[in-house]
Amino acid sequence: MRHTNDKPHVCEVCHKAFYKKGALNAHLSSHTDEKPHQCEVCQKAFTKKFSLLVHLRIHTEEELQKYYKEISEKILHAKKQTCACDICGKEFPKNSRLARHKLTHSSEKPQCEECGKICSNKYLLRDHLFTHTGGKALACEICGKRFIEMWHLRSHLQSHSEKMSYECEVCHKTFAQKATLQIHFLTHTNEKSHVCEICHKTFARKSNLQTHFLTHTKEKPHVCEVCCKAFTQKGSLKAHFLIHTNEKPHVCEICHKLFAQKSNLEAHFLTHTKEKPYNCEVCHKAFPQISVLRSHIHTHTKEKPHVCEICHKGFARKQYLQSHYFTHTEEKPHVCGLCNKGFITKGHLNIHMNVKHS
């Protein structure tokens, strides 16, 4: 196999080189005529998974919503399925809980080596051993009493007044836990003690730093089970999943239009108020959304942050990159209704309509 300095992965059939092994593997299917990635809506098949994802855009929103709803219902149904004990018939939501339960039917009972006490299963034995080691690591913040298990501590906290809370001296907001109040207080002092080691950006909360760090590692650990889209934050995944279930809980008070995500409602609301709160510091042009402003700023900096994974060409805006991908899949999703000629972009179709059919 031949190698190049820039593209180490070379096709043994045609000697075309690639930056990534995954790209080479996808390319190899073009020699075998295999098309393993099939559209569930129209059954059209593709050699690359990416080509399938791009192709899905040609279907109407109604077709996709119907398909995604069917898939999400199957997933939700699978999640609701329970595991039943074959001895007593008791049902459990997870296999791990069923396995733990089955130990109660076992004739062998684990025994404590310290005091000889017999426990019904190994998990209760583990909890019992703490009584010998003194490992009561969880302390009540109110009275100082210590516990082995978190659920013991939570039950104990209910014995204190349910009205007990920690109040912020600045804004008088109340919190159930002292630690939560301490984190909140940093928003008033403007302290940001958690520093990113890569870009040195600071954060008040460690959790915010951890989420930010994923922007450097490019990790997106939260993946949608329906369309495989990945997200850095679990909350973003939950908001995205509403697209598939067709839930739209956020309602515009003016026109009653429904939205799946609160951020989309907020952006829509500006169309009624005509507000454009985000201003470009270079040319002072105003925009209704910060994402649109960020895309606009690239026209001044000449940055092209959206890079094609296939040919590495850069683009200032994400939608330009998405249109560019059609040049690789050789799809032309915008079709003229009069002569059936296809075009990569809607703009090219409009030009065609004006020139040929006007």
From TrEMBL:
Keywords: DNA-binding, Metal-binding, Nucleus, Repeat, Transcription, Transcription regulation, Zinc, Zinc-finger. GO terms for molecular function: sequence-specific double-stranded DNA binding; zinc ion binding. Coiled coil: none annotated. Its main location: nucleus. It is found in: Nucleus. One of its GO terms (cellular component) is nucleus. Residues 9-36, 37-64, 83-110, 110-137, 138-165, 166-193, 194-221, 222-249, 250-277, 278-305, 306-333, 334-358 form the C2H2-type domain. The keyword Zinc-finger applies. Pfam families: zf-C2H2 (PF00096). Belongs to the krueppel C2H2-type zinc-finger protein family. PANTHER family: RIKEN CDNA 6720489N17 GENE-RELATED, ZNF44 PROTEIN. This is C2H2-type domain-containing protein. It comes from Larinioides sclopetarius. The lineage of its organism: Eukaryota, Metazoa, Ecdysozoa, Arthropoda, Chelicerata.
